[in-house]
Amino acid sequence: MKLVEAAIRLILQRGFSATGVEQICSEAGVTKGAFFHYFKSKEDIGHAAMEAWAAYGMSIYSVVRSDPSADPLDQLHHLLDVMIGLAERDEPLACVIGMTAQDMAAMNPALRASCDRHFVAWVEFVAAILSDAKLKHPPAIDFDPEEVAWMLHSLWQGSMLLAKTHQDQQMIVRNLRHARAYVDRLFFETSPRAPEARRDSRRRSP
User: For residue 198, is pLDDT > 60?
Assistant: First the structure.
């Protein structure tokens, strides 16, 4: 839908707070009457924009689970390579949900809850991979898969914020590579799997 796509583009450029209904209508090339035919308010389209963004993101991430017979550690390396690939694109990397959370979590309970729901979905997806990896590879250091998944998500979202502020998108790439090394050390005293997994996942990355 043009209105939702326009809202996503503007939120990524300027954040939720600085995006108004008039700007969304102008970006989409529709009238305010058309906007209010579909959405009751700016908050309403904010929810729709986050739903669309989350669906887009999970369609990318879910590729790593497409082969149920794959080693879960290979799946995790593939996920990190997908994320690195996103960060290595020419355009600045940002997240509609993360930017909305920064703007609105303290002042709009409904938007905060929506942001949190999408964050939890990502964490549950990654925690499932980590849980499967623990079953297949007894870890060298015991860990809670959900806690590690939250750490990875915090690093992912925080890196996008800091890279934008510091004007260094390669910071995201470096942080994700540190995350890869950290996860490997949970399972092995060294990281013998990492080079092979990186080569394999690059061949499969979209």
Answer: no
Backbone dihedral region for residue 29 (phi beyond 0: left; psi -120 to 50: alpha; all else: beta) = left
Identify the weakest region by mean pLDDT among 4-8, 123-127, 140-144, 189-193: 189-193
Tokens of 13: 């450029």
CATH number at 125 reads 1.10.357.10
3-state secondary structure of 2: helix
Per-residue pLDDT tens digits for 12-23: 999 999 999 999
Question: What is the rounded (10 degree) CA torsion for 136, 138, 143, 144?
Answer: 30
* Domain count for the chain: 1
pLDDT in tens, 117-127: 999 999 999 99
Q: What is the CA radius of gyration of the chain?
A: 19
Distance CA 34, CA 75 (A): 44
- The domain of 50 spans 2-204
Q: What is the pLDDT of residue 60?
A: 96
CA distances from 161 to 101, 168, 190 (A): 12, 10, 31
Residue 160, amino acid: M
Q: Which two tokens stand for residue 101?
A: 């959370």
